[in-house]
Amino acid sequence: MSVKAAARPQAEAVAWERFAAAEPDMAKLLRSLLGWIPIAYIATVRGDGSPRVHPFCPIFAGDGMYIAVNPASPKWRDLANDGRFAMHALPGKRDDEFYLTGRAITVPDGEVREAVVAGAGHTVHPDDHVFELRTQYVMTAHWEKIGKPDTYPVRREWRMGAPASNADTKRAARRTREAAGSRAIRKGS
């Protein structure tokens, strides 16, 4: 671990299944998006603090989500040194979106690594580095009224440790009212 990473407090993050148990519909969206195209993008933090973006194939095994990284890839150094990441799945057929931030934890050799290798839909080489992608924040979105005036996003959020609320429902209702209000203003002009 780098000196910078050692000095930075390590925020807590949860295993994928803990998030999925709390928000099954949001978790189902990611699985659906990856079932269509099994590629997402992961942003990592370079040693100098600048961001770096990479395509990758998330792997689900046991109760976690994982990434296997070739030792020649800069991803592994970024994840090993800092651990912070952001992930965005490719948009779905309806422009559904899935965004997640969290911490990568190195997976040592053993049963978990063997489960990851077995669960991967691609080759994981013996010298690949494996990390568990632990979850801190998730945001999903879909678009209402696509192709029509007043298209707007409907977003849901989950934050580790935050109490369950109906904020997403309130936010969607507010956007609907705002969209209706903008139509009324245009019609009345």
Walk me through this protein's architecture.
- The protein is an alpha+beta fold and 189 residues long.
- The chain has one domain (3-162): Pnp Oxidase, Chain A (Roll), CATH 2.30.110.10.
- It has helices at 3-7, 16-22, 24-36, 74-81, 111-119, 167-188, and strands at residues 40-45, 51-56, 59-61, 64-69, 84-89, 97-106, 129-144, 152-159.
- Strands 1, 2, 3, 4, 5, 6, 7 and 8 form an 8-stranded antiparallel beta sheet that branches.
- Strand 3 and strand 4 form a beta hairpin.
- Helix 2 (16-22) packs across helix 3.
- The radius of gyration is 19 Å and the shape is globular.
- It starts with a helix and ends with a helix.
- Mean pLDDT is 85; it is low at 1-9 and 182-189.
Radius of gyration: 19 Å
Shape descriptor reads: globular
Give the termini distance in whole angstroms.
Answer: 61 Å
- Quickly give the structural class: alpha+beta
pLDDT averaged over residues: 85
Helix percent reads: 25-40%
CATH class term: Mainly Beta
Number of helices: 6
The SSE string, one letter per element, is: HHHEEEEHEEHEEH
Low-confidence stretches: 1-9, 182-189
Total number of beta strands: 8
